[in-house]
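Retro notes
What went well: the complex prediction finally ran end to end.
Inputs used:
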Amino acid sequence: MAEQVSPTRSTLLAKRDQRRLALQGADLLKNKRDALIGEFFALVQDSLKAREALNAAAKDAYFSLLIAKAFDTPEAVESLSGTPVRVHMEVESLYGVKVPRISAPEGNGALAFSPIGVGSKTLEAATAFRALAEAIIEVANTENRLRKIGEEIKKTNRRVNALEQITIPEINEQIKFISDTLDQRALEEVTTLKRIKAKIEEREAQEAGVISAHLEKGAGL
Amino acid sequence: MAAGYAYLNARVRSRRSQLVGEGFFQQALSASFPDFVRLLGETVYGPDLKGGSLEDVDRAVSSHLSRTVGDLPSLVSGELRTVVSLPLLRADLVNLKAILRGKAAGKDPEEIKATLVGGTLPDTLINSMLQASDAAGIAQILQLPGNPLAKALRNAVQGSPDLLALEVALDREFFAAALAKAKKLRERFLASYFALEVDATNLATAFKLQALGAPANLEAYFVPGGTHLSLTAFSRIAQGDFAAMDTLSATPLAPATGARTLGDLERILRKILRQKAHQGSLDSLGPGLTLDYVRSKEWEAARIRLLARRAYYNLPADAVEKEVMG
């Protein structure tokens, strides 16, 4: 429903400013959307590569695990699990969008258990699972960024549509309404002034003894 | 002691005759999982096999090992029991490290207990260790006179090291203490086997450190007591200088001098140690037969677990053939 506006000249000026601002905003949002779409497609490639790397790392890790469990017993291998992988997380701004950057800090690959009594298969499995954890972190990083950017593209698109389809036409309508009202008022004012002017001229003519032609006709005699 | 060995070796010889034959492994290499379970059920593992899942196979292997290997110390008494227990202490070391790791990670005692393998330590002692608050507390509970593991833990906890340093110290102390115990018992074959095992462990550790990127304190990972691999050669190999392997060319570890990957090295070392254990089995009045039997059963169990996994996950035979037949 259109907003009720008072049809005054100052409102008209304010509405014109609003329209200029809305058009500028729509242009800016379109530019932002285009930049985000570019970033999104660049990230899609990285994300697909990270997924492929994750699948390969998972295959290696689980094969190493089954061999390790066979040689060093399932219980002994499972007792080595549970070492948390610490991640470094920071939030960066990408065209005003807050996106997380997750990374495994340097030195995170250090062994968490003694290599002396452990079989080579278990060690291989530990290394493979460390690589798997890093692949998961990379996928989380790219897919999270992708999701955030995708959401932002949708949000920006909605904003552009709202500005172009609703806000700007509404302001245009209001401007038209105010302009029409002001024009109407101006016309009325001109008419009133013309009538006042005619009255004044008539009075002056009467005082000077001049009989107005249209008054004569209007006397109904 | 000779009478004790005669009795023990008679029992071990009877059990040795029941080792699973090579025919089973050849057949199992290409069998489907249901066929594998059926084949396993026809072996000495049959009575322990209670179901048809992979977990059931793992349980059957564990229970069979505890029934046929874990009970060996109970067949003898006195000093002979200590001798027989020595090759089985590795399982206790694995359990002790699992408890220390579980405690450090804040796991529940029940959760830790699920990751323990059968060893020689009694259940009551394990339960007490699971209730202890830290490594020092566990060392206080594990007061077994003359037990290499208890001695290793007492030495390792000194100075309150972090978990990795504690595990490394425990491993070092354990191998050294087991070797010292074998020497003290005047069991020459057992002592020479453990000395070779120390060398093999050191060589494998050097390869592992080389693969992981050699740390600064290399000597912390070197187990003393070996006869063929020096600390200098160990350090050179750990830093990637494989020319140091040539120092082993006139030793029992000579077949390993050509190995350049950890996988190849481990296969060769396994073969060398099994051959060494087999040499001892020729002495019917010594501990060699028991040692050979224990190592043969451990190898048999590893092969069964590996083949079970190959069949369960439907992997091609060549994916595991090198390991199973190596």
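What we learned: Chain B touches chain A through 50 residues (CB under 8 Å).
What to try next: split runs per interface for comparison.
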